[in-house]
Design a protein that fits this description.
- With 86 residues, the protein is of the alpha+beta class.
- The protein is 23% helix and 23% strand.
- It has one domain.
- It has 2 helices and 5 strands; from the N terminus they run βββββαα.
- A 5-stranded antiparallel beta sheet has the order 1-2-3-4-5, covered by helices on one side.
- Strand 1 and strand 2 (9-12) form a beta hairpin.
- The longest helix has 11 residues, at 68-78.
- It starts with a strand and ends in an 8-residue tail after the last helix.
Length: 86
């Protein structure tokens, strides 16, 4: 059952998941499923958000790799310019 929380936010409860629906976002209407890793979904309707509250979670399109973060740290240690004295 959709419930209006504020002017730009609806919350859909009563299904398997609690879904937050934002109809006035810059990139178009979007929703976010609480507790899921799928992130937010853009350019959808309120009917799509209600359907998502009752269906299995949406899978992520790609896996997030954490291989980049250590390489950034290593590169920042090797940079000469942060410690320059002009």
């Amino acid at each position: 059952m959709p419930r209006k929380c504020s002017d730009g936010h609806w919350q859909i409860r009563g299904g398997k998941f609690c879904v937050n629906f934002y109809p006035f976002k810059d990139r178009g209407p979007s929703f976010y499923i609480n507790g899921m890793n799928a992130g937010s979904h853009h350019r959808i309707t309120l009917a799509d958000a209600i359907t998502a509250a009752n269906e299995p979670p949406i899978k992520k399109l790609h896996k997030r790799t954490r291989d980049r973060k250590p390489s950034y740290r290593e590169a920042s240690r090797d940079r000469p310019w942060p410690n320059r004295s002009w």
